[in-house]
Write a structure and sequence with these properties.
Elements lengths: L1 H18 L12 H4 L1 E8 L8 E10 L5 E9 L2 E11 L5 E7 L2 E10 L5 E5 L6 E5 L6 H13 L8 E2 L3
Antiparallel strand pairs: 1-2, 1-8, 1-9, 2-3, 3-4, 4-5, 5-6, 6-7, 7-8
Length: 166
Amino acid sequence: MLLLSLILLCAAYAYSSNNKDIDRTTVADIDLKDFMGKWYEIARFDHRFERGMTDITATYTLLDNGKIEVVNRGMRDGKPTEAIGKAKTTDVAGRLRVSFFWVFYSDYNILAMADNGAWALVGSRSPKYLWILSRTPQLDEATLNHIIKLAQARGYDTDGLIIDND
């Protein structure tokens, strides 16, 4: 019992230390239908499931059953790669739960979105995950810098962003 308590205490500490000082407030007035469709990944933090990838897109399709199909595509070592997942809505506007593996879901928070829907800033429960998405393959430098400043204002350390804006 003591060992289990110690493990739970360590897990709670690790969770809280990884999550402090990040504003995860989602966009409150989003119509999820506006988020559906194809997005180009402009920037992200490094993580193993996209490591070494370029030309990444994510396509979201609202299904008849209310779930969302998520199709991520990109290039790794000159070869196309694809991952198909699923998402479901939550009681919080702008927050989805996304899964690419069985029943394991992660938070997917739409933190900011352009009024015209041209770009989105997306994070998760962890400060280690952050994406800048665009409806076009590139963003102009001023817009990209604006989005990065929004992420910084929320507490993200954006120095580690991998930018694929070519």
